[in-house]
Amino acid sequence: MAEFGRQRGKRQEDGGLGSVLDLLLANARLVLGVTGAAVLAIATLAVKRLIDRATSPRDEGDPKAEQKTLEESWQDLALIKATPKPPKKQRREDLSEPLLSLARPPVPGEDREPRVCSAPPETPRVESSPPRCLTLQEKLLSHYNSRLAVPEVQASLAPQLARSICTQLQNFLRNKCPELPFGSLFLSGPLLDGLEALTVDHIHLMLPVVLDAALWSLIPGEDTVVRNPQYWMIKRTDLEYFPRGCSPWDRFIVGQYLSSNALNEALHKMLVASVNWPAIGSLLGSVIHPVVASQELRLEVKHDQVEMSITLFPVVEMEDKVLLAAPPEGLVENLWLESFYRAEVSKVKELDAGDSGARRHCLRILNGVCKSHPALHKLSGSPLTHVVLHLSATSLDWAEESLADRFQQVLEELVGYLEKGVLPSYFNRKINLFCELLEEEIDEMGFMLYRAVSEPELLLKEK
User: Fold this and answer.
1) Do 303 and 199 share a structural domain?
2) Residue 185 within a domain
3) Do 346 and 265 share a structural domain?
4) Of the residues 314, 338, 362, the one at which a domain ends
5) Model confidence over 356-415: pLDDT tens digits?
6) In what residue span(s) does the Mab-21-like HhH/H2TH-like domain sit (predicted)?
7) Are 246 and 375 in a shared domain?
């Protein structure tokens, strides 16, 4: 009896559960539609079978029955997972209408028109292509064409304006100092020669100092007080036969040497106090003023379309040397710096013309990167040019297609030179172009370039 009561109770529970499930399935078609009801029926059947097996008495100790029950359970779970998902409901146009409005019985006398829910227009799918990874070659050419390009107006106006200032300054010197044999002023710099980044913000104005070779001679840099082969001294000779005053430049002698400092100071006073820059600027449609506090002979020029800085360099050419009145900082005032700029430009252009190379492209990019980077700005100019010239002796392929390879190779060469702390001049291996760099500066540059060797794109990012 007890067993029968348990079975009867179980049947009643099963019947109650079945009634609930049947009621749910009966109303499922009304609420969910045909497809939704089918989905719910399959899932409900599987769940019901799981419940039946869980509540039915197990055959203890019968491994076959346990294995069969386990298999049926996995089949039911697979059935639930494989049940197709119901289609998404269309968006209701009227949000105030309840979900079960379609099941509401019609009201007598009410005109019911079938409500047509138009599906929203499908937005055409646009296949988004994955972002394209640019090669280093493409990044370098893009950097060259976008960031190193100079607007055409500025590229033509800046040299024209600088030449006009050059002419005005030449006339002033001839009128103010007719006894001093200055040569004809001429322009120099990246904008005209094309080795460095093409910018119009800085132009060099070269002022030739014409010396009589019979009265002057050059003292090699190794024999000077700084023991630097890149600096020279210009000595006045034969004073016993040609005493002071025989040369118009004798007024700038300190000891027996032509002082670059004395000449710069005299020119600085004239530029600041004697030249009528407001009148010249008005004539040229610009505002021109000399930089008073600078040790350099520098003019700042502001025009409506361009702003630039012009630096004046007295230059002596003797015995195939080009010497600038640019002494090192300190107490030494008679030294003249040997410049290789003219030889650098000539050699690079000669090499590029011989093999249709891209050395100038590479140098412009390198100079632009170094000038804009606070840790690398002292590498711009001559050091980079000499590295490229050294590399040209061993790497012969400088075609534009090899620009990325040569660019990365220059970085590797620079790291090697910085590790040694020595970059020999291409034209005079006694000269170390890193001699004026501090150890901390060399370490910082080396660390930055060491990272850039493996990831050159670091140097091309915006600062």
Assistant:
1) yes
2) yes
3) no
4) 338
5) 998 988 998 898 888 888 889 899 889 999 999 999 999 889 998 998 899 999 999 999
6) 359-445
7) no
Query: 329 lies in a domain?
Result: yes
315 shares a domain with 374 = no
For position 445, what pLDDT does the model report?
Answer: 94
Same structural domain, 221 and 367: no
Distances in Å between the Cα of 257 and the Cα atoms of 212, 227, 240, 244 are: 14, 17, 15, 12
Domain annotation covers residue 295: yes
For residue 286, the one-letter residue type is: S
CB 342 within 8 A of CB 384: no
Nearest to 135 by CA among 414, 361, 403: 403
Identity at 96, one-letter amino acid code: S
**Cα(138)–Cα(215) distance, integer angstroms:** 57
Same domain, 267 and 295: yes
How many domains are there within the chain? 2
Number of Cα atoms under 13 Å in the Cβ half of residue 152: 0
Bridge partners (DSSP) listed for residue 321: 318
pLDDT above 90 covers a percentage of the chain that reads 46
Residues 273, 157 share a domain: yes
Q: Decide: 217 and 192 in contact? Cβ < 8 Å.
A: no
- Whether residue 286 lies inside any domain: the answer is yes
Minimum mean pLDDT range among 68-77, 129-138, 371-380, 418-427:
68-77
425: domain CATH number is 1.10.1410.40
Place 200 in a pLDDT band, splitting at 50, 70 and 90.
low
User: Which CATH number belongs to the domain containing residue 245 in this structure?
Assistant: 3.30.460.90
pLDDT, tens only, 15-64: 555 555 555 555 544 445 544 555 455 555 555 555 565 555 555 555 44
Distance in angstroms (rounded) separating the CA atoms of residues 322 and 343: 10
Question: Which residues constitute the domain of residue 400?
Answer: 342-459
Query: Does the pTM exceed 0.90?
Result: no
- State yes or no: pLDDT of 96 exceeds 80: no
